[in-house]
Design goal:
- With 259 residues, this protein is of the alpha/beta class.
- It is 38% helix and 24% strand.
- It has a six-stranded mixed β-sheet with strand order 6-9-8-7-10-11, sandwiched between helices.
- A hairpin with a 4-residue loop joins strand 8 and strand 9.
- The chain is built from seven helices and eleven strands.
- The longest helix has 28 residues.
- Helix 1 crosses helix 2 and helix 3 packs across helix 7.
- It folds into two domains: 86 residues, Nucleotidyltransferase, domain 5 (2-Layer Sandwich); 151 residues, 2-Layer Sandwich (Nucleotidyltransferase, domain 5), CATH 3.30.420.
Length: 259
């Protein structure tokens, strides 16, 4: 089996592929202070709980946007799974032409998502990843990564509102029944959720106009932890694929395994 690990700023999402089928997937909190041994023991506990023998792991591939873990998790892979992992970065074959001023600046998660979305849905397309940050990525009909936009995620905005105001409470990130709310908690939820829906649709609309593509021909794919919350009300988003990044890691692994 192939172990795929996507390291985000808030969560680490990882899974096991049996061939092209995702057999298991899990989500744990990202902790940059954990050691390679702590992560190794945590993975082993999860695998044992699911009756998975680590000897069944044939290979490992890792994508990370958290620099302190760029060494930690590869060390975990070598020490606990006896596998030298593929780490997404320079020298790894993605099969996608990155047309960015400096391709090395593009986050690994954005590239992996773009590869997966183009492989699964074709282009032209826009991928919106709702995580700690929201990323918007545009891929052409020919499969070229042309760039995009980055905004603070909805959770960051909610925490900033709570921390920077004296009387506003911390709220659960759920969609209220009405935009015109009758209490403070629902008012905050309304502003956050519907505000983000408006922002997301405005950016997507501007990208469509700027790239001069037919709105009816472009695919807009949402992924990430808050994708369902925002995408359900979006004018443009028609596809929600929460595990898109894991599929992308598998695809990139397949393109590199014979190297």
């Amino acid at each position: 089996m192939l172990l795929v690990i996507d390291v985000g700023n808030t969560n680490i999402v990882f899974g096991l592929f049996n061939g092209r089928e995702l057999a298991f997937d899990w989500r744990i909190s990202t902790d940059k202070d954990r050691t390679s041994d702590e992560y190794g023991l945590l993975f082993n506990q999860i695998f044992q709980h699911n009756n998975i023998d680590i000897s069944e792991i044939d290979d490992v591939i890792i994508s990370s946007v958290v620099p302190p873990l760029m060494h930690t998790l590869p060390t975990t892979s070598v020490r606990y799974f006896n596998k030298e992992p593929i780490v997404i970065g320079p020298g790894v074959k993605t099969g996608m032409n990155i047309k960015y001023d400096n391709p090395k600046e593009v986050g690994a998660d954005r590239i992996v998502n773009a590869v997966a979305a183009f492989e699964k849905y074709g282009g032209p397309l826009i991928i919106v990843d709702f995580g700690t940050a929201n990323t918007f990525c545009y891929v052409s009909e020919e499969g070229e990564y042309l760039g995009g936009a980055i905004t603070p995620g909805i959770k960051i905005s909610a925490e900033a509102l709570f921390l920077r105001t004296a009387k506003l409470p911390k709220v659960e990130l759920v969609k209220p029944e009405k935009v015109v709310a009758k209490n403070t908690v629902n008012s905050i939820q309304s502003g956050l959720v519907y505000g983000y829906i408006g922002m997301v649709d405005h950016i997507i609309g501007k990208m469509i106009d700027e790239m001069n593509v037919d709105e009816n021909k472009i695919k807009v794919v949402a992924t990430g932890g808050f994708s369902s919350l925002i995408a359900s009300e979006s004018k443009y988003i028609k596809i929600i694929d929460k595990l898109l990044t894991l599929d992308g890691l598998r695809i990139i692994y397949e393109r590199n395994k014979s190297k």
